C-alpha cells in the first residue's frame, strides 16, 4: 500500500541516520550509511514525490508522510530531512 511504502522509506532514512551517528558501530559501516543517506530520499522528497505522481498511471503510488506516519507518540525516530546534517564519521 502507498502508506506502507512511504513509511518504509522514512524509517529506512531514519535508520541510516542512526547508523551513521552510532559510534559503537564499525567506522566502515557508519561511513557507508552516511554515503547512502546523502542520496536517499528525505521526508521532503517523499512529500514531493507523493504529490507529483499522485495522478500518474505509470507510477508506484506514495502517500504523504503526514498520512503515512502514525501519531508522533507512537514512534521514536528522526526522519531524514533536508536539514539533517551528517558529518563524515571518523574515530577521532
Shape: elongated
Proportion of residues in helical segments: 40-55%
Indicate the structural class: mainly alpha
User: Cα distance, first to last residue?
Assistant: 43 Å
The number of helical runs is: 4
> How many whole angstroms does the radius of gyration measure?
15 Å
Report the sheet-strand fraction. Answer: under 5%
Q: Topology as H/E string? A: HHHH
Major β-sheet profile = none
The low-pLDDT segments are none
Brief account:
This protein is an all-alpha fold. The protein is built from four helices and no strands.
Provide structural commentary.
By secondary structure, the chain is mainly α. It has four helices and no strands. It has helices at residues 2-21, 27-37, 43-52, 65-68. Helix 1 (2-21) packs across helix 2. The radius of gyration is 15 Å and the shape is elongated. The mean pLDDT is 86.
Write the layout of secondary structure elements.
Blueprint: H1 2-21, H2 27-37, H3 43-52, H4 65-68
Helix pairs in contact: 1-2
Short key terms for the protein model shown above:
mainly alpha, 92 residues, elongated
Amino acid at each position: 500500500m502507498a502508506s506502507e511504502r512511504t513509511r518504509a522509506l522514512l524509517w529506512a532514512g531514519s535508520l541510516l541516520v542512526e547508523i551513521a551517528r552510532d559510534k559503537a558501530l564499525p567506522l566502515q559501516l557508519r561511513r557507508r550509511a552516511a554515503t547512502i543517506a546523502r542520496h536517499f530520499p528525505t521526508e521532503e522528497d517523499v512529500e514531493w514525490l507523493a504529490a507529483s505522481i499522485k495522478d500518474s498511471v505509470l507510477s508506484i503510488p506514495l502517500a504523504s508522510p503526514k498520512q503515512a506516519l502514525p501519531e508522533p507518540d507512537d514512534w521514536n525516530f528522526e526522519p531524514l530531512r533536508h536539514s539533517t546534517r551528517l558529518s563524515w564519521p571518523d574515530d577521532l
